[in-house]
Write a structure and sequence with these properties.
Layout lengths: L1 H4 L21 H33 L2 E7 L5 H12 L5 E7 L4 H7 L5 E5 L8 H11 L6 E5 L16 E7 L6 H4 L1 H6 L2 E5 L11 H11 L4 E4 L8 H11 L1
Parallel strand pairs: 1-4, 1-5, 2-3, 2-4, 5-6, 6-7
């Protein structure tokens, strides 16, 4: 969770321990305090996520939360998806990164409305950040909102943004055991995209083992195997998106 990974989303939150003598703090007390802070953070986040979800549903907006480790190809996937479907769907994008507007500039070059959210030392987007970004984007009815989360396979899984579905992206350069090393991410996801399959002949990656690991964590995952670079498998992903909208 965020209080162990360096994220400052919980900055300023304090919990007073009652009936404790000074200097007598035990590990149990520390554990209780951490749980209380986490519950308060997630409770506030979930409240705003419900507001976001109600807004999306009222406008017929399909929101997707794209999550992955850094370098899996989320931004490239967005670029190709938008380029392939811009004539069929109205896209809006929220880009999450700790620093820079690099990804927002890449998406903006496609003439798609985009807002960059920089989290500083924070390691994920939260529902309040999405709420503020929505005021700037003002997406139209029946559009598609793509939220590219900060590259991180831990904290983003914990934070509901109000999205319709969570999409986890993994590349074949990362190792097939990622689903069992980061189970919360794959357990929370609805869709698993396995990217860079054009590199399979050149890397030590067992595609079937990766999917087997992922299904052990989440038996309801839907998979798309594709290469953004070559376009292989992109039609299946794009067809699925069109069916959802």
């Amino acid at each position: 969770m965020c209080d162990t990974c360096g994220c400052e989303s919980g900055a300023g939150v304090t919990v007073e321990l009652l009936d404790e003598k000074p200097g007598a703090e035990t590990q149990n007390n520390v554990d209780k305090r951490v749980i209380l802070v986490q519950e308060e953070l997630l409770g506030k986040n979930d409240e705003m996520a419900r507001v976001n979800r109600k807004f999306f549903e009222s406008k017929g907006i399909k929101a997707y939360n794209l999550m992955s480790s850094p370098g899996s190809g989320k931004t490239s996937l967005l670029e190709r998806t938008i380029a392939d479907l811009k004539g069929d769907l109205s896209f809006y994008v929220i880009e999450g990164d700790q620093q820079t507007t690099n990804d927002a500039r890449r998406i903006g070059a496609l003439a798609v409305p985009v807002v960059q959210v920089n989290t500083g030392s924070g390691c994920h987007l939260d529902s309040q950040m999405i709420h503020r970004a929505l005021h700037k984007l003002n997406p139209i009815e029946n559009s598609v909102l793509m939220i590219e989360n900060v590259g991180n396979l831990v904290c983003p899984a914990m934070f509901d943004l109000g999205e319709k579905q969570k999409v986890v992206v993994i590349s074949v350069t990362e190792g097939e055991d990622k689903p069992v090393k980061y189970p919360h991410m794959f357990e929370s996801a609805d869709i698993c995209i396995i990217n860079k399959i054009d590199l399979l002949p050149y890397v030590d990656f067992n595609l079937s083992a990766c999917k087997e690991y992922a299904l052990k964590v989440n038996k309801n995952l839907t998979f798309f195997e594709l290469s953004v670079r070559t376009g292989e498998g992109m039609s299946d992903w794009c067809d699925w998106l069109k069916e959802q909208n």
